[in-house]
Design brief:
heterodimer; A: 502 residues; alpha+beta; 3 domains; 9-stranded mixed sheet; B: 98 residues; 3 strands
Chain lengths: 502, 98
């Protein structure tokens, strides 16, 4: 395979204007599937969560999940959409073994929610409005394992194995209108949109929206048109881009690739493309042999959904504070910059810090531990911050121990290490590891006396007014107490004994 | 005039993964054209005030609570599968050599 030629991002943007369309699939967090009562619990034994309905056996009949419909309406409302007064499901017919029914139950020309928008905030604080075309209800497909190919890919596989546990899990597909006018910020807008949507979905409580687990997936449609023209160019569709960073990289790569093709006189082929995490490139999927022909028709086995206006208003009244509004409120309460808040959002730490503050910590300490030591550990272990085995309550307890002088920062880090290693809650770790700051004034006084005696020259300098030299003696005492002293108190004692005003 | 051409029948047959011989295409194209023509007469009598019907019953909002019901066992689920492996449905090669 030859490496695709790219033009530089700057050159691409000088000549062309990008237009994007983003399709996001969200797996709902319902207990059961969209059209049957099978469990949706992850990690179950293969084919242990299926029934005649989701296997498409003759004579079975689907009935829609009330919570699934409610979640769809909530998402629609949060996206400022109009909620359909009456809409139907449709069969999308295709032959592919990931759906045993040979069709996917979806919605076609009557989505439950349409014509909305989501305001997203870029890193510099600018608000960009992304218009929403529609949000509709459908179901996920089964999971294929391809056997016999070199890399587990479908190409070259001899046969494939299907697990239908995931077939029928509720999905909401959210489709934007063409995103125009983002210019060079198009990749950033794409990433910010998916990030904001993820926060919104989590705030609504309809899904955990974990991208790394495939609970939220994004397809990036992108085309270029020459600067100053109106007509859209031919688009490519990069499928299943499964992290925020990848959404940005995929958009950026496609802008550079399209520009290279167009500026050398070539034409863009309308096709699906695969994104590669390792180098951020995309490669061609199958070029469709013929126009898609799904022969959609109204699903005869499901009756129409007609959300009453009363119910819609009831649901509207339950909507939580929008994540962007909440973040701006927290940013002001915490007294931090937009950039710091963005870092906290990207690290997935907003809720963790809030919960730590609710558990009694001050916001500066809560931010310090989550964005410092704990973020470092999460990064090292390659896990999400929220997946670390430490709770906001435990972090709050550690900050309390620091602020009452029982722990200094070094000992607090060791306490965190102990909690993460499963040694128990912070107080247990402090007790077991003997991490308490030496607050016994007698023992500390002795250590200070020894340090002064051993460093007479420095002590003289301090007596002579060079208070800054006290640092060296503090260091000596900390070393002697193996870090278990309160450095501020040690400094006070040194200055007191040498008769100098701090 | 509604109707269906031989080409359209061939296209539908391919979408439905049905292998039809030339004489079968001729045969079915004629039959399907007759059927569609007969059904089309309904639209001639239905005026603007008669909406297309997708559901014969005047029902909406039939929903079930989000409560788990027992599933089939994997053995039951796989009992009708022509082939299985690793407790999964085994299907023939999906993409041919390219």
């Amino acid at each position: 395979m030859t490496v695709t030629d790219l033009v530089s991002y700057e050159d691409a943007l000088a000549a062309y204007d990008p237009v994007m369309g983003l399709e996001v699939h969200v797996e709902l967090g319902t207990k059961t599937k969209m059209f049957c009562g099978c469990s949706t619990t992850l990690g179950a034994d293969a084919n242990s969560q299926t029934c005649p309905t989701c296997l498409g056996l003759p004579g079975s009949l689907p009935v829609v999940n009330a919570t699934g419909v409610e979640s769809a309406v909530k998402i629609g409302l949060a996206l400022n959409c109009t909620i359909a007064e009456w809409c139907r499901f449709a069969r999308k017919n295709y032959f592919y073994p990931d759906m045993p029914k040979n069709f996917q139950t979806s919605q076609y020309d009557e989505p439950i929610a349409f014509d909305g928008y989501l305001d997203v905030q870029l890193e510099d604080g600018e608000i960009f409005r992304v218009n929403i075309e529609r949000a509709h209800m459908e179901e996920d497909t089964g999971k294929s394992t391809h056997i016999g190919g070199a890399t587990g890919r479908i190409h070259g596989a001899r046969h494939s194995l299907l697990d239908y546990n995931r077939a029928g899990i509720p999905l909401i597909e959210i489709v934007t209108k063409p995103i125009e006018g983002a210019g060079e910020r198009a990749p950033e807008v794409a990433k910010a949109y998916v990030a904001e949507l993820r926060e919104l979905i989590k705030a609504l409580g309809v899904s955990e929206a974990r991208m790394e687990q495939g609970q939220m997936r994004c397809d990036v449609n992108l085309s270029l048109r020459p600067q100053g023209t109106e007509k859209f160019g031919t688009r490519s569709e990069t499928k299943n881009v499964n992290s925020l960073r990848s959404v940005e990289r995929a958009a950026r790569y496609e802008i550079q690739r399209h520009a290279a093709v167009l500026s050398s006189g070539g034409t863009i082929i309308q096709e699906t493309r695969h994104f590669h995490e390792d180098d951020g490139s995309t490669t061609s999927g199958r070029v469709k042999e013929e126009a898609e022909d799904y022969r959609y028709f109204p699903e005869p086995d499901l009756v129409p959904v007609a959300p009453s206006r009363e119910w819609v208003e009831e649901l509207r009244a339950t909507l939580p504070e929008l994540p962007r509004v909440r973040r701006n409120r927290l940013r002001e309460e915490w007294g931090i910059s937009a950039h710091d808040m963005q870092s906290i959002l990207n690290a997935g730490a907003v809720d963790l810090i809030t919960a730590t503050v609710d558990a009694g910590a001050d916001s500066a300490s809560a931010r310090k531990w989550w964005m410092g030591e704990l973020a470092r550990r999460a990064n090292e272990d390659g896990v999400e911050l929220a997946a670390l085995p430490i709770t906001p309550g435990q972090v709050a307890r550690i900050t309390a121990l620091v602020s009452d002088g029982s722990l200094n920062d070094k000992l607090a880090r060791q306490t965190i290490e102990g909690v993460l290693a499963g040694e128990g809650d912070p107080d247990t770790v402090v007790e077991k590891r003997g991490l308490k700051v030496v607050s016994d004034e007698g023992a500390l006084g002795t250590a200070v006396d020894e340090a002064i005696a051993a460093n007479a020259a420095i002590a003289d300098k301090i007596r002579g007014g060079k208070v800054a030299a006290a640092g060296a003696l503090v260091g000596a005492v900390m070393k002697a107490t193996r870090g278990q002293a309160d450095a501020a108190r040690v400094r006070e004692l040194i200055l007191e004994k040498l008769g100098v005003e701090g | 005039m509604p109707g269906i051409t031989r080409e359209e029948v061939a296209h539908l047959a391919r979408l439905a993964r049905l292998e039809l011989k030339d004489e079968e295409l001729d045969h079915f194209a004629g039959q399907l054209d007759d059927i569609i023509g007969a059904v089309a007469r309904v639209s001639e009598v239905a005026d603007q005030d008669v909406p297309p019907t997708s559901h014969p019953l005047p029902l909406t909002n039939v929903m079930r609570p989000d409560e788990v019901r027992p599933s089939l066992t994997p053995e039951q689920a796989l009992s009708g599968a022509p082939a299985q492996e690793q407790q999964r449905f085994k299907v023939p090669q999906i993409l041919g050599e390219e």
